[in-house]
Amino acid sequence: MVALAILRVEKLKSFGNVGGSEKHTARLQDTPNADNTKKNIRLIGMEDSTALEDLVKTKIASTTKHKPRKDAVLCSEIFLSASPEYFRPHDPSKAGKWNYEQMADFAYASRTWLINTYGDKCVRAELHLDEATPHIHAYVVPINDKTKLLSHKEMFGGDGRAASIKLSKLQDSYAAALAPLGIERGVKGSKATHTKVKEYYQAVNSEPLTAVWENQQLAPTPFESARTYINRIQQSDDFQAINHQLADRKFMLERLKSAEQRARTSEKERQRLEKRVQLLESQTQQLRDLPNEDVAWELGLHHDQQRWKGHKHIINIDGAKFYDFAPEQQKGGSCAIDLVMHVNQCNFRQAIAWLDERFGEALAERAAIAHARKATALIIQEPRPKFQLPVEDKALWQAVSNYLTQKRGIGENLVQALHERGLVYADDQQNAVFVMRNLNRQPLAKGAFLRGTRGENNMFKGYEKGTLRREGWFYFYLGGEPTTPPEKLVLCKSPIDAISFAMLEYQVRGDVPPTRSLYMAVDNPNSLPLERLRHIPNVRVAFDTDDAGNAAARAVKELLPQATRVKCEAVDWNQQLIDYGRQLRQQQQQHKEDDLSL
């Protein structure tokens, strides 16, 4: 069966619509038909925490001349895919499975088409791999190049015949971009209804599977042969939607069965943890505070009408808390030490000494620990500022790129790929900013490592203020399938070393790693995310060969027993990359001279 290109367009007329669409495509809300074990890929736009709404607002503000009309389409969502026959030609019904190389070719061709067609008007594109069939959600701000005004109608057509013509031309263009992959356009001029993105998802998730049968175009025409009817049905957009529905249904049934098994396992784990909590509670009994009633009695107060009275105090005690209702007091606290300080009018040190005299050292220590724990609990509840990445200066990126490729010897393709993923960019001081992220399914920026590139001998390097070095790392993946867990981990001291190591492997082998490989910069073994790394079978420790590097490597091998030491021949991996490149150029020059001598 021939694989067909699929393109849908949806209007987003308000920023509420934009935010609602992002919640689905960025997986900011629970998506029942999505497999959370698979990671989606950002094809266009930085992988940061910037909201889609902000990207659209910034694009509109920087490009348009006037404030958008109230009825203007602020953003256009484009859905791109191909029928299942392309991604899994041997068995289109196997939802959630696909040929990796064909998926990658589809993603590359679609991304190229988006960039060539819309340029920087396409503010984000997300490749979804966690549903039945790979597909792309792209967001385009429909700005007219001539008028500098928002105009979805000008870009995609309005209602009626004009919209059909423009959409038809758009589908022609997209199908032409996918044609080298063997993906064809649907029947041109077909009267089948072109489903919108939202309606398409409603059809896919509907129950029962009858949403698209209402289209009378699926009925045979008079005197139509069986072969002609079958070909027409197979090329129908509605038939492709049915295929997606059936595939998604099978996929969801498999996930439901898996979820039920996980639920049973989770219940057993919950029961085990509950027993553990009960044990810990019994073990930490000694850390609890002294009873306020016992302390009040030692302070010389007497219990009368549910209050503790004496020395001009009228104190109500409620567990660990107390409050003094005496007219000249009107004050409360939350632990034994607070009660002693209040009644005796003393400071913290004097309160501890008093408790030691009356209850002994062990119980005084218990009260002090409880006091510290409560004070700490209040402190950690205070709001803390979130880490902010340095502001990007796109005008300085070329200078930073030249530094990495020309002075550091890193391949231009790898530098550009990391830049497009949002992992390295230029700030306003022309520093190379290497983004440090957590290892979650939706990674968030937790810090940044800066490397100076301005001038001949710029030795500046360091971390951006506020970097959370135990929560974020500079890392990237190469090789294998994006949805598979890494089989190899390479640990280097710095981002440039990690990139250089990957580049050396590429130059020696001549292609990307055959298995999923994770390259990570870690300058202290104590900051390793061990729980996420201990299951990777092949760990290579590629720190510097000096005393500090050897000590760090030994520490890593204690934490990750499967690790092996890899030593570079030069002072670091970047210098080895530079030396290797120089040797290659010398060999090439020698070959040229030998050819000329012949």
UniProtKB/TrEMBL annotation:
Gene Ontology MF, one: DNA binding
Biological processes, Gene Ontology terms: DNA recombination
Keywords: Coiled coil
Domain DUF3991: 402-478
Taxonomic classification: Bacteria, Bacillati, Cyanobacteriota, Cyanophyceae, Nostocales
Similarity field: Belongs to the plasmid mobilization pre family.
Stretches assigned to coiled coil: 249-290
Designated name of the protein: Mobilization protein
Pfam family, one: Mob_Pre
